[in-house]
Amino acid sequence: MGIGHRPVHGAGMPENEPRMKDSQIATALGDLGSRVEQTNELLQRMLAEVAKTPSTHAIFVDAGYVYAAAGLLVAGTEDRRAFDLDAEGMIEAFIDKARTIFADSRLLRVYWYDGARRRIHTPEQQSIAELPDVKVRLGNLNANNQQKGVDSLIRSDLESLARHRAISDAALVGGDEDLVSAVEAAQGYGARVHLWGIEAADGSNQAEPLLWEVDSQRTFDLDFCRPYITRRAVTTFENEGAPPPSRDEVRFVGAQIAATWLAERGRDTMAELLPGHPYLPGPVDQDLLIEAERVLQRSLRGHAVLRRALRDGFWQHLQAQY
């Protein structure tokens, strides 16, 4: 045997490495088979539990859309001050409809999105928040009575619930194109999004890109909405036959209202009006007129001079504060 060569033992195995006996191989294979069987049993139990767990749905309501669309359809106006909405009744109707559509699913809750000054609940929003299975989420309401931040709240909730598998289906009541990103986010986590709308009085009240993105679409007609909308009676004043107030009186009332709004709505909100001087946004001008008529207990409609005096008093006080 030459130098540097070592004898080889067995089938190429190193000299000192022990060989596994047939009995040991059989034991190892038996242990492996037992573990596989246990794993399969565990998976079967998990699948059985998943099969027993009902799917879950939630309803997301853009209240601004509901007020505008249902008000226009039933009462002929989008102005909330012209009609009353039975929010409790409409929410219950939405829940009943969801029970029919998602028959094998349970309701997580209804999310009601609305705007409010400084995100402080109005009495109406507070009563809605007290309803069972309803959560009110508030965006801000700017000086032009426009909702701010509502779409981002909807997206945040939709995405979060879908990501955590808290819902399998979402019924979205709205029409704004800005909701497309919310739909895409929820769908990205496997949730199905169903768009619910209110019949348009004329044309369409839901953005086409939103209709393209959702998994299904449903529209509620006039008969569905009519029971929940009541038009308010036109206000009449007892002293209509009396002489109209003077310009100074009306100007003083305008200043009073400006002071009240500063306290209630906040300086930042009111400051948003300043760049528009001497004009007020339509909704704000309407609020001012209605509040002045309430204080004066008479109509200022048809009195252009007095309405200018009202605005002058309003602006005079507002500008003096900044």
UniProtKB/TrEMBL annotation:
One of its GO terms (molecular function) is RNA nuclease activity. It comes from the Bacteria. Residues 58-200 form the NYN domain. InterPro entries: NYN (IPR021139). It holds the Pfam family NYN. Residues 1-20 are annotated as: Disordered. This is DUF88 domain-containing protein. It comes from Streptomyces clavuligerus.
